[in-house]
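Service request form, structural biology core

Requester: graduate student, group of Dr. S.
Request type: structure prediction, single chain
Budget code: on file
Notes: please return the result as structure tokens.

Sequence provided:
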Amino acid sequence: GKTGINFAAGMSGGIAYIYDPQDSFSQKGRCNLGLVEIEPVQDQQEGDSLRDMIEQHLEATGFLVAKGVLDAWSKSLLAFKRVMPVDYKRYLLEQASSPPARMTAMTSQPTSADMEDMVAGVSSDSKLQGVGSKSTRRSKPGQLSKADASGSSKDSSSKLPLNKLRGFIEYERNPDAYRKVEDRLQDWGEVNGDGHTADERKRQAARCMDCGTPFCQTYTGCPISNLIPEFNELVFRDQWKAALERLLSTNNFPEFTGRVCPAPCEGGCVAGLVEDPVTIKNIEYAIIERGFKEGWVVPRVPQERTGKQVKIVGSGPAGLAAADQLNQMGHSVTVFERADRPGGLLMYGIPNMKLAKDKVDRRVQLLMAEGIRFECKANVGQGALTLGSLCASSDAVLLATGATVPRKLEVPGHGLEGVHMAMDFLKQNTQALLRTGWGCAGPTGDFISAKGANVVVIGGGDTGTDCIATSIRHGCNSIVNLELLPEPPVERDGSNPWPEWPRVYRVDYGHHEGRHTFGEDPRQFCVMTLSLIHISEPTRLLSISYAVFCLKKKKTLRY
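Core staff response, request fulfilled:
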């Protein structure tokens, strides 16, 4: 069919071949020549490659136009035009003049396949030997991730030039490894390992396709619109400081999102349509940690102050990000926090195994060095510290409070002894560990302990997983996790198309630790809790009996 108007607008890579027997494509308005140029197909090798593609198309579709083109190929070839970005062509030709690329036998006008080989620096002989052959084994859905299942991920030892143009085809996704489960269960340190070498990180960045429409940073991907293809490209080029600048232009705290964000960017990654997505979250975390290590992340004290006073209530992720933004504008910012330490959910809602508290403290100290004031144990709304008093003493007040009131399970028996809200459980555990340290001995003092208990966790989200992992580290006798929703499919179904967030079966760190400790996954799906029943035996954390109705099996279960 005919092309639309404004063809090739925004085209930054690749080659398009247009069959134009009426010679109308070059007319004004059909093709946007801002970035591309139109040329005839004159080289015999390129013509043979084009004919091969059309023959494959005819074989797959039986399209009669393709048959007509092939039947009169000598004449048809003259009607084809090549559309190619000027900068892209210049870059590839520059690569062709480099010593590695000279190994490839080239004609004066390279074909598209030859151009890719030039960038890879691969000769025809090396291709025959399997150099650069693709490794495209998609991880089997529902399995443990490589990082968690093996406890280590292998870095490739190959030193061949990386093929950025075909990276998403030739290189396998290799996420950062978790620490071995038997090791991490002995302490409260982060489950994440040390990460990849610089060479393997570059290989993973080479898998980014630099899409014309990067869904990873649209409304289906990153909610803060991180410039993902840009910092991936800079990591591939070993321009880490520039990558850090691009990352920080949209993200206040990559060290947090790089650890605890669910990574919807990877769910929207175009590479994930046919293979596994790019390890965007790992690359993001590597960039910010490299920045701290190299001394690139330093206090940015505003050169001028506006004289405006801003008070922020709440020091969780939203409060800290707002404080950072307003402070950089030159306003004087004070943050009020009800708890004894800043950070909100980052400090007390997320266990140290997922987000180390020294990283939260590191960021808070940086914000303080930039001029932000923190007042802890400040419960706004009680005593003299009222909202009215804050408004009277400042030019603006921002409420960035979290939802600390739990959503209770309104069933008979919800107030029985031994029933605890997840945030109370997790917060007290972190407070105890902050008092006694993060060593193998574990928390001491006043906290909710699961040691020796038969634990039932109601709710199958991230918080439920954190409760599982915390209970196992306490030394519980058993653990069951009740999930209201049905077990999700191992792959996307028709109601969950790409680039939506994939609602598929996953095994998180806590589930794997449950398998390792008790021999089976603690989750039970499609279960509705009807009541909590008192029993006469001594009970501990969530060790009471639950009468639940299993929608799938149509019977009452007791735990």
